[in-house]
Amino acid sequence: MGLDSAADDKEGDALKPYITMVTLGVTDLERSRKFYCEGLGWTASSASQEAVVFIQAGRVVLGLFSRESLAEDADVSAEGSGFRGITLAHNVGSREEVDAVFDDVRRARATIVKEPQEVFWGGYSGYFADPDGHLWEVAHNPFWPLGDDGSVTLP
Amino acid sequence: MGLDSAADDKEGDALKPYITMVTLGVTDLERSRKFYCEGLGWTASSASQEAVVFIQAGRVVLGLFSRESLAEDADVSAEGSGFRGITLAHNVGSREEVDAVFDDVRRARATIVKEPQEVFWGGYSGYFADPDGHLWEVAHNPFWPLGDDGSVTLP
After folding, report:
1. Minimal Cα distance from B72: which residue of A?
2. Adjacent-strand bridge partners of A65
3. Which of residues 11-70 of B touch A (CB under 8 A)?
4. Maximum distance among all Cα pairs of chain B, rounded to whole angstroms
5. Pair A63, A98 in one domain
6. Diameter of chain A measured on Cα atoms
7. What is the pTM of this model?
8. Coil, helix or strand for B11?
């Protein structure tokens, strides 16, 4: 879409609903790379560079980048602490898979924030934190059919 | 995968690299629904409920949920402020599209955090914040071919 057509856009037309990348600000890039790539067994793309690790996470790119640099890139202060008010979820096909993931996560020395358990909405889920406290939920939601790529297609 | 096979798992085997959902904790669910669905023109799934809005964002589900409830779900304190150390990126196919998205975002009364500009890595990007300060980067990365669904496939 060029600038001319942009001028004719209606509200909400240009911004399609998708997320290309999720970037986690980290305090020690090598520690985070080890956690995700050696601990969890994910693969750093060859597009990664000295200062940034890119991981193909299904149809989304997961980026690991210095927390300070991420704040600088966004032109905001890096000051901040406590709950981030944002979580990432990794859905699996059964309760047993949730438990199996938690076995892996424990081996990777993640912080177990909430042991997997039955939850009020009828699923089974737990939370772990990465080395910087970024929260991941691992969930079985029996109401959401899961694609092979870990994606859900909502009605 | 059942419990028996889980017992034989090697490290990192059970946790496949993908993100099913990104959940944003929000202080006013209706304000956030309006921002994303009326302002940006995205569609709330019929799977949404009174206390949660689900939006199909490409192959990821974007969830909007009370910040307090999200903290409670993760069994952590909701205390926290400042930079969250995590950003979401929305890549588009050209600089002109970045500008067009920013026109939309301005109309949706988002906070413009960083006007679109050339960035050191050879792309063109800017940042806006949603009503709760969650940071979205809108970027053109000429080195990353973009799929129709807004996804990138890394080498």
Report:
1. A114
2. A25, A52
3. 11-26, 38-43, 45-47, 54-63, 67, 70
4. 55
5. no
6. 55
7. 0.92
8. coil
